[in-house]
Amino acid sequence: MSARAGVRLEFDYLTRRRSFLELGALAGSVYGGEPPAPLTNESLWRAFPRGYVGGWLDDALTGCILLWPLDARRAGDFLAGSRRERDLTEDDLVTVCNSPRAVYYFAGLLIAPSWRGRGMAAHLLAEAMVRWHRDLPWRPPIRFAAMGVSVEALRFIDRFGMERLRSAEETADGHPRYGRTFGTEAALRSVVRSARDAADRKGRLVESP
Predict the structure, then answer these.
(1) How confident is the model at residue 13, as a pLDDT?
(2) Could you give the number of structural domains in the chain?
(3) Which parts of the chain register pLDDT below 70?
(4) For the whole model, what pTM was predicted?
């Protein structure tokens, strides 16, 4: 898979500190300044580096998707909308990934401004879902959550088949909460396939708008 001849496109976990520092630069370019604190919280990254999957073009981090295994008990107030995302810490994550209390929260989807609308998001989601399904000890029921903070986030939520659990008016931060539970392994596999199919339909990344 490549953007154009001679350009290297790679996907992987952000497990090295250099990659985490690249994430800070990417987030700054996306938000045009200081990004939301949780996106560049090093303690959260250290607690679960495999929740960070990035896409590199010619060794430059161009996109990243973030997934945190929240503890439904300790982070329940955030999931219900009464606490803000910026107040989450590493203590809100489960220590055992297949704990029945785990709720996998999509914390961010960052695409470099120059690559928005050109296929990176679809490819990034597909590559991340394949890795997480392969490497994380998921066992049904598997719960996912997200927060609708932007048009891009809402498109992702719709693509993932989530339903709204709390409206913006019901939350402390004014952002609706969404969720979906997969009761069987087969149902989760179908989403992984759908993500892969969506990326395949996009084809190669488009070099220019």
Answers:
(1) 96
(2) 1
(3) 1-7, 202-209
(4) 0.89
